[in-house]
Write a structure and sequence with these properties.
Blueprint: E1 3-5, E2 8-9, H1 10-13, H2 19-22, H3 27-46, E3 54-56, H4 61-65, E4 81-84, H5 92-100, H6 103-106, E5 109-115, E6 118-123, E7 135-138, E8 140-142, E9 145-147, E10 150-153
Parallel strand pairs: 5-7
Antiparallel strand pairs: 1-2, 3-4, 4-6, 5-6, 7-10, 8-9
Bound molecules: zinc ion.
């Protein structure tokens, strides 16, 4: 295991990238993953500084296409998103709420979504937009189709 940040390894961030299919991870993606991993450390700290499993980080195009309902413009394809499991003793909803209530952590988050048993956070993909959307979403099964309705747009708490 190659350490990447204090509490994460390079392998955890690139488990969804098959070098045999996709080739080596590009430097640009490593730079993006550094931002994503720094945000992970922030989230980990505000969730009580307990171990958190990284379910997905960078995803290759082929791997992404095998996930039902995965977005073709997913920030995972750029290494700018992470899917996290809640730490022991915390539900997914509690984890979501913790992040939402943390203004400095939320400011740079483009999307925060409860999906597939994970907390997905995405950072801005510069090729797609300049300003984070600050979307708060949750998954909903509508007639067998997985959708991600918008709960609300996050805004900083008054006085923050
Ligand atoms: Zn995700």
């Amino acid at each position: 295991m190659v350490p990447f940040t204090e509490h994460s390894t390079k392998e955890e961030w690139t488990a969804g990238w098959d070098t045999k299919i996709e080739g080596p991870v590009l430097d640009d993606y490593w730079r993006n993953l550094a931002k994503t991993a720094a945000k992970f450390e922030e989230i980990r700290a505000i969730c009580g500084d307990k171990p958190i499993t990284i379910n997905s980080g960078l995803r290759g195009k082929i791997r992404n296409s095998q996930i039902p309902g995965a977005s073709l413009t997913s920030a995972h394809l750029w290494g700018l998103a992470g899917d996290l499991l809640p730490p022991a003793g915390m539900t997914l909803q509690e984890m979501f709420n913790r992040v939402v209530q943390h203004p400095t952590c939320m400011l740079s988050i483009d999307q925060l979504i409860i999906e597939r048993g994970c907390l997905h956070y995405g950072l801005v993909v510069p090729a797609q937009r300049l300003i984070p959307r600050r979307d708060l979403r949750t998954e909903k099964d509508i007639a067998g189709i997985r959708t991600y309705p918008l709960l609300r747009i996050w805004t900083p708490p008054r006085g923050a």
